[in-house]
């Protein structure tokens, strides 16, 4: 096709046309559009339906080394080598991401016909990449990023599962095997799970293992300790708040735990401590899977699986009207009870070995033995603080162990039913025995109370100040 000659005497700029109309508002709008076109990063050229240039921006001028204003009115083929703008005007078909060779560079361009009433009135051309190698670089970068994401997802899964699978829950006793089987079945559903059991039995461990065995494993596991959140902050912690919802609120607002757990699992620990006035709000989000932020008026949908745990007797609490019956039924869809350590004594030594291995870590050549009498003492103890108490006892022993074997003399006083005064117990005098017993009981109470001093003092039946005094006497950490 023959290239039409440039028409120099007939400027076709939008500016000129609107200057003729004499409309000031229209003029300023056109100025703005021209400014926008000139500030776009990519080179841009617009032609009319015959291929004559009506717009040509500065970046394109800089790229080609020409003055933009001088190109207006010329035919596109006289301005840009290999131009196809006039052909697109004729065919009316857009050319998206086409290769285009200019000045020895392979570029990537778009040519889009602009139509009015079905007729092409202009063609918009844009240089997408000044060098086609940019595209392949970008594509490579994208592939690289995609594989990195894949790698991280995999690592995340390995990391999480390495810590929290059912296999990492130690226990070969019948009740534990059965419990793991039930927990795996629960993981395959999206139903709420209620885990009960004494303090320190491993309820949280089960909650995490269920999450990581479920289809939600790549999404967040959000733990909320109902006993630890101050009452007046509970609602905003759970549901978040909007800007200016209350004094001290962050100016941007803040998402709550449920929002953060989208597609994942919410673990409500110590659910028995959820204040009564919060219970209907929890029930609503469980039933409707949507909530409103504090101070907000839009409803936010959320998808999560709920796992709740408690060491309290929720049924009794329902009877005492301290826990809502409707909420209890909603939570108790799949009940799992983690047995106390004394109900699975065959797991005690297994757990002790596991804890010792964890304490010693990767230290090469280090191995701590437990002699037969100590094993019997560990197995015979009732462990009111369960696995947590066992861990604490072993940690303390290891920190002051003088050899590589745990012997009865290393074990806390409470593990022996009563001190046997034998000829071997040369150093045992009453004062020392009482001191050891006192320290031991203090430690147990603190373990049971999860280091909450007021609770520990209540357990011991003494005043808190007295507890602090005794802790000081035995050099127990006060924080
Ligand atoms: N079967 C187990 N195998 C390995 N570690 C365990 C096991 N059970 C408990 N533990 C460990 O004991 C400690 C207490 O466990 P966890 O916090 O899960 O108990 P819990 O029942 O949720 O306690 P609480 O009711 O006091 O919150 C944790 O350090 C946990 O890793």
UniProtKB/TrEMBL annotation:
Protein name per its UniProtKB record: PAS domain S-box
PROSITE patterns: PAS, SIGMA54_INTERACT_1, SIGMA54_INTERACT_3, SIGMA54_INTERACT_4
Species annotation: Desulfomonile tiedjei (strain ATCC 49306 / DSM 6799 / DCB-1)
Keywords, ordered alphabetically: ATP-binding, Nucleotide-binding, Transcription, Transcription regulation
Taxonomic classification: Bacteria, Pseudomonadati, Thermodesulfobacteriota, Desulfomonilia, Desulfomonilales
SMART domains: AAA (SM00382), PAS (SM00091)
Gene Ontology terms for molecular function: ATP binding; sequence-specific DNA binding
SUPFAM superfamilies listed in its UniProt record: Homeodomain-like (SSF46689), P-loop containing nucleoside triphosphate hydrolases (SSF52540), PYP-like sensor domain (PAS domain) (SSF55785)
Superkingdom per UniProt: Bacteria
Boundaries of every PAS domain copy: 29-74
Region feature Disordered, mapped onto this chain: 1-23
Sigma-54 factor interaction domain residues: 169-399
Pfam families the UniProt entry points to: AAA_lid_14, HTH_8, PAS_8, Sigma54_activat
InterPro entries listed in its UniProt record: AAA+_ATPase (IPR003593), AAA_lid_NorR (IPR058031), Homeodomain-like_sf (IPR009057), HTH_Fis (IPR002197), P-loop_NTPase (IPR027417), PAS (IPR000014), PAS-like_dom_sf (IPR035965), Sigma_54_int (IPR002078)
GO BP, sorted A to Z: regulation of DNA-templated transcription
Keyword Transmembrane: no
Keyword Mitochondrion among record annotations: no
